[in-house]
Amino acid sequence: MPILRRYALRLTRHPIDADDLVHDTLLRAIERRATYDPSRNLKQWLLAILHNLHIDQLRSGHSGRARERDFVEQNSHMLAPNQLDSVRLSQLRRAFDLLPPEQQDAVRLVAMEGLSYDEAGRVLGVRPGTVMSRLSRGRDALRRWEAGSDEGPQRIS
């Protein structure tokens, strides 16, 4: 459960939405338990369900991303000047949000959740080489942003 909640929270950026996503994931897993192959890793199966549910929610317009972006934009100026770490984290979060969703997913699963390329590929429904490519492009984009960070986050790809 903790890995499901962490991943859901990273996808939704809102605790209530993350809890709902985990709940929906577990409900779907129970409903479709007959399709589970015991030779397959249960964690990967559940993460794949969670990921697919999130994609479905994004497509149907039930995402909390707009709410999170509005919150960051409205409140980023409220940080005290001596809170440089908080400001830097906020800037990095905005830069990460500018990555294409495919690269965000690869970075989340491999760099943040510690999944292997094979495991992340199974969760995302792509080959491990595709995960490696997306992760590499995402990291490169963040490094380019970091190199020009004096100017603030810019559109990265």
What would you say about this model in short?
With 157 residues, the protein is mostly helical. The protein is 71% helix and 0% strand.
Q: Please, could you describe this protein's structure?
A:
This protein has helices at residues 2-12, 15-31, 42-59, 65-75, 84-97, 101-112, 117-124, 128-147. With 157 residues, it is mainly alpha-helical. Helices cover 71% and strands 0% of the residues. Helix 3 packs across helix 7 (117-124) and helix 6 (101-112) packs across helix 8.
Give a topology summary.
Elements (H helix, E strand, L loop, with lengths): L1 H11 L2 H17 L10 H18 L5 H11 L8 H14 L3 H12 L4 H8 L3 H20 L10
Helix pairs in contact: 1-2, 1-3, 2-3, 3-7, 6-8, 7-8
Short descriptors:
mainly alpha
* Percentage of residues assigned to helices: over 70%
The stretches of 5 or more residues where confidence is low (pLDDT under 50) are none
Principal-axes shape call:
globular
Q: What is the mean predicted local confidence, pLDDT? A: 83
CA radius of gyration is: 17 Å
> Ends: how far apart?
32 Å
The portion of residues forming beta strands comes to under 5%
Main beta-sheet strand count, sense and barrel state:
none
**What's the count of strands?**
0
List the total number of helices. Answer: 8
Structural class: mainly alpha
Order of helices and strands: HHHHHHHH
Assembly context of the chains: single chain
